[in-house]
Structures are given as structure tokens and as C-alpha cells.
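ok here's the first one, seq then C-alpha cells
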Amino acid sequence: MVILTAFLILFLILGFVSIFLFSTKTLKLKTESSTNPTSYPLIGSILSFNKNRHRLLQWYTDLLRLSPSQTITFDLFLRRRTIITANPENVEHILKTNFCNFPKGKPFTDLLGDLLGGGIFNSDGELWSSQRKLASHEFTMRSLREFTFEILREEVENRLIPVLSSAADYDGGRTVDFQELLKRFAFDVVCKVSLGWDPDCLDLTRPVPDLVEAFDVAAAISARRATEPVYAVWKLKRLFNVGSERKLREAIGTVHASVSEIIRAKKKSLKIGGDVSDKQDLLSRFLAAGHDEEAVRDSVISFIMAGRDTTSAAMTWLFWLLSQNNDVEKKILEEVNNESALGLGFEHLRGMSYTKACLCEAMRLYPPVAWDSKHAANDDVLPDGTLVRKGDKVTYFPYGMGRMEKVWGEDWEEFKPNRWFEEEQNYGTKPVLRTVSSFKFPVFQAGPRVCIGKEMAFLQMKYVVGSVLSRFEIVPVCNNRPAFIPLLTAHMAGGLKVKIKRREH
């Protein structure tokens, strides 16, 4: 029996190899010169995918540039067809016009379900809708904006600036990883706003809390699940609790346990304190709304994940771009000095349109979220004529969109904040920010799922950029173009190593 089984397995392997060899020689359906990846019977585009797995961003972008419709399709072994688009009309169709037909879908929510559970960024239907309504209400409250701004001001003035001052005053200048500092800063801010808890990550004399490292590990491994050519691989590893999936389970255990402990402590303090009207953090607000502990845990984990990595990534790339474009940095400084004679306040930040244009331009080239996927609930046809079958994975691609000549013009590769302004009508008038379709620039998503923290994110980034640049020069120790790494949230490979110099006034 054992011998018979062995022969059967060998026969199946040889049969598969024979079919594969036959496919590669005689049944090739598409070539690499076409707009879609090379595809073979049975195995689809898995060979092309695996070959380009280390450079998916550039590979997708190159193929989309060749496509007349800025859309490509391909199949992977044992997975549904994937459609990737950089066409703004398609993006509008997916995110707004036919929104109900393009939920995240179970294949996507499975990837992040272990970490994010049923949180707002990993849910569909009524579960998503109820969380969205609650969060939208809270984010429009003036009290939350004021609470956030006060936390932001304290974190910048009492922690970030002193850390940078210490590095600047160090004999010969200390090299610091500016990306790491911004991530620590952002984690402090988002934990204070979301949980009412202070991890104090900018205290460099002690190790960061276990929760921080667990977040990093969990996010990285969860993201890599999506790049497996065959999803069964990570699912089997999870089933047997081995390799990266074992590390993921341990990291998620730490995240869930840490956040649950904070929630229990918060519930206890709310009972002791009685009135929750003076509790401004999101956790207190969600608990006051009567949500159970698991739902609240999933919600705040989602907000921490989004709020920490997105703003720090965008600012990291902006500071690097400014180091390569001194003329743009000077214009930001002029704006900051004009707006903040008495210090950067909320209204001053609203008026910093040039700084906002610089941030948008940085995110066009280096979006914090490089791609996002939905799954078709039913058959459909995209505006460019692409047929969509029920169950297809449909991905819109901000990274590629920022590099499309059809979308941004021949100068797409240049860092040009002025592209975000209307032409000045009268001499001496202040330029007005151009209204750019969110479907052309879907960095904050668009439609019903548009990011509810968008304005708070700009507020935070403007404040940090203005406060830092007005005091310091940020000088990279290496002028080579950094590598862009697209995990759940993109980051700069190896960090941004810089010298901090006090700015001469």
C-alpha cells in the first residue's frame, strides 16, 4: 500500500511537470511584451509573479504604463483572477459608483483578521457601517480636535524637540534614524488619542514597550501573507503553527493582551471616576457608547495601526525630498515664519497651504499605502471595459497612479509642489490649492470609506514639519535614493539616517 501510494504521488508530480513543460513550450497564452503578465494553462502567471516578487511595485507600474487602459489582469495558481488598475475612472467606480459591489471581501479580511479582527479597517457590511458611524461622529467633535492638538503640541515641544536638540548639541553631531524617531513620536500621539495611554517611546534611555515591537512584527508578517504566490502556504503554516505564522501568533497575542489590559484599566478608572464627559480619548468614548471589550479592542488596534505608520511614513519621505530640494524647503520656512510669529496654532496650521501641497506631492510619489484591494461581490464591467467576475480581486494602485504620465503629465517624476495649486489670477495674491479628485489621488481612499482622520493627519504633519524645520536642518548622511518597502504601511528601507543641525536665524 505504501509503495502504491508513493508511485501515485510520483505519477502526479511527473504529470504536473509534463503539463508545465508542454505549457511553457506550446501553450503560452501571453508574452512579457504584452500589457498583462505571462500566463500559462493551469498555473496562470505564477512564474512571472514569483520572478518579480521582490519588485512588485515596479513590475506592476511598468505593465500599467504599457496598458492603454492602465489596467492589467492575471491569474495565480489556486487563486482567483487579480485585476490591478491605475485608471481614475475605474477607481471611482470601485470606491464610489458601485461601492456595494466591491467590499474588502473574505480573502482580504482573512489576511488581516488575526491582527485586526472585526475592526473598521477589516470589516464589511453592517459591522463596518456601525463602526463608521460611531467613529465619524467622534472625529467631527470639536472636543476631539482640541484634545488631539493639545497632545500633539505637548509631544512635539516636550519630547521630539528636546530629542532633536540633544542630537544637534552632541559633539560632531549624532547620527539618528529620523524615520524611527517619527514612528516613536506618532505611536505616542496615537496611543494617547486612541487609548488615553502614554507609551513614552521618545524616552530613548529605555527600551520601547513590548506592544510597539509586537505591532511591527504582526504588521510585517500579515502583509507578507498577501505576497505568497500560493495562499495555501501561509494557511498551512498557520494551521501547524510554524515559521513566520508562529511568530505572528505570538506577536498578535502580545498586541491583544496589552490592549485588553489597557481597556480593563480604563473601564475600572471610568467606574471610579463616574462621569466620562472629561475623558477625551477614543477608548473612553467607545466604552461610553456601550460597545463590548472585543469590539472596542479591534477598533482601537485599527486606529493605532493606521495613525502610527501612515503619518510617520509620509513625513519621512517629505524630509528626504526636502533635503534634495532646497528651494522647496525655503518656501516652507517662509510660510512657517509668516504663519507662526507667535507659535503654531490651529488656525495657523489651516493656513499652511504650501506645506500641505508638499505633503501631498510626497505622498503622490511615496504613498503610505501603496495598494488596496477589494473583491467583487458580483459580475461587473469597469469603465475602461475590463470584465470583472464574481470573486475577482480588484486592486487600485496609488503608487503606480502617482507614476502615470496619463494621470500626472510628463513631469510626473519631478517633486513639484506647485502642481497642487491653481494658477495665480492676480499679482501678489496667495495661491489657492487646486481641487484634485480623490480618485486621481486615492492616498486617503475615497467614497464612503474615505479616511475619517484625513484632516487630523494633515494637522499633525504640518505641525511637526513646521516645528522641526523652523529649528533644525535635517541632513541625510547618504544621498542615495532610498528604497520604498510596501508592507501594510510603506516605509523607507534601512530608515532615514541624518545629522541634526540647529538652524541659523
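and now the second one, same deal
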Amino acid sequence: MHLAYPAVLAVLLFCTGLYGVLARRNAILVLMSVELMLNAVNLNLVAFDVWLRDTLHAGQALTLFTITIAAAEIGIGLAIVLLVHRNRGTSHIDRLRDLAETDRTATDSDEATVADATDNPVGSPAGDPAGRPTDTRLTRGEATA
């Protein structure tokens, strides 16, 4: 068997995966594209292992490690995507660029922290009994005078 056949197939798989990572906006499809790229690398490792007639079969052993890493990556990636979808309601990548919540509401503890911050400098032990730095952000509805 010629080395060109699996190498060309691996290049096609890798380019398809790269296109999927760069062009797709759904997080699940991006994870599937990463898996395509990893499988293209695995195909190359096995093909070169057979072509070089390695007695230790290092390419095949490295392929097993790559498959293990890919399985762990997809498990953690899917868990993160499911949590983000549960919290935000979407897995669209363009809408998930900001990790901070945008609809944060002011609570009584936030207003008390702002009041402490105006009396004491940031990080002053008098502002917080535990000695933690106080929060100087203003809550919604307060004017910045």
C-alpha cells in the first residue's frame, strides 16, 4: 500500500475539521470538528507506523494515547457546553464570548459594600471585618457624581 492514500485522506479530514472549527458557530459542531482533526492525526500516525515497519509500533501506541485524550476532551467539552446551554439558553459561540453575566441585579449586600468602599480605601481592614478588599463598583441606579 502506498503512503499517499492515507496521507491524502488524512489531509482531507484535517482540512474538513479545520473548516468546521473556523466556520461553525455551534459549540457541538466545533467539538465534532476537533475530533475530525484528531482522527486525521491518528490516521497519519498509524499509516507512518506501518510504512516505517516500526518494531515497537510507536505510532499505534501514540494513537491510543491520542484517542484517550480525545475521549477526555469530548467528555469535558460536552459537560461545559451542556452547562452553558442550561445557564444561557444557547450554545451559539458568538453569544458566549463574554463569561460575565450581563443581567446582574443589585442586592442589599452589594449596596452595603459600595457604602463601605466610599468610607474606606480599597483593601482597608476597617471596610470588612475579615480583612478582605471591599468592592468599589457602583450598583445600577446610582449616579456617578
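notes on #2: The mean pLDDT is 80. The longest helix spans residues 58-88.
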